[in-house]
Amino acid sequence: MTYRFLLLLLLLxxxxxxxxxxxxxxxxxxTRYKWEPTELQYLDSLHVKKLYVRIMDVSxxxxxxxxxxxxxxxxxxxxxRNLEIVPVxxxxxxxxxDISKAQLHELASRVLRFVEAxxxxxxxxxxxxxxxxxxxxxxxxxxxxxxxxQIRDVLKGEVLSATLRLHQLKNLERNGIPPxxxxxxxxYNMGNLRKYGDQNxxxxxxxxxxxxxxxxxxxxxxxxxxxxxxxxxxVFRNKQYAGISKTIxxxxxxxxxxxxxxxxxxxxxxxxxxxxxxxxxDELRWEDSSLEQLREVADYLSPLLSRDSLNLIxxxxxxxxxxxxxPYELQKTADxxx
Length: 338
Known about the structure:
Shape: globular
Strand content: 25-35%
Low-confidence stretches: 5-16
Radius of gyration: 22 Å
CATH topology of the largest domain: TIM Barrel
Number of domains: 2
Strand order of the largest sheet: 1-3-6-7-8-9-10-16
């Protein structure tokens, strides 16, 4: 009798449980947009409705002494008709250290004017969400939040979202909650890139667990997730960080006349390769976002998320990058978050 009763309760619970609604999207982080057949195929296969397009960086210009747009995007083709644009603006943290409220107010207006012009260049008449990306810290928090509030006040009903890095999530009392409608938790670039060793600074479940938990579950703003689909080689010279080689591929590292494999994800350069910024005797650490890692992260995060819907945004839409993952595999990863 007791067994049947417990079984009935389990069946009732399973029947009442509803799946979380997941909308898959992509970031587009290149400076030129044009139609690429493979990229369009992925968007169609995954039923993508939004493309988060980096519009520009905003950085400090030493000549003028004021924030200026850097490397704004150029649209060679209009965005597909069935695709909504979410403009993304990266704000350099260094411009927030010594800036007046009046300058922040003016910056908010200038950013919005620039974004509106670029959205029209993309072939769209409007946007329904604007996202701001900034690696703000406790010392720049007040100015950054003031800038966000200025932007939010000028928006005409559009959603304002902001990226959220793990270190910004960890100590909410110190770091605060940005005044936005949604946040996008960046589940990548979470380790110490410059540290010599064999870790993976792009994606590391153990590192993620140090930050996610109760703060994630009880975060008071609607949350979306960003997962990485990129790789790179971190270069060390005399065991000191020497930069990132984003263009070299794993196949090059595996050529025995060019590199010695020294264990796990590390390689020793035998020759100079100036096209990649590599010298003989440099050590390289290969970092990527494997499908297994993506699924581990999604599986870990799913029960910690309290909302019944979210956008899963892959970084980023680039033919050379996404070809390592099939649409089916990316969909199965998204399904783990339901």
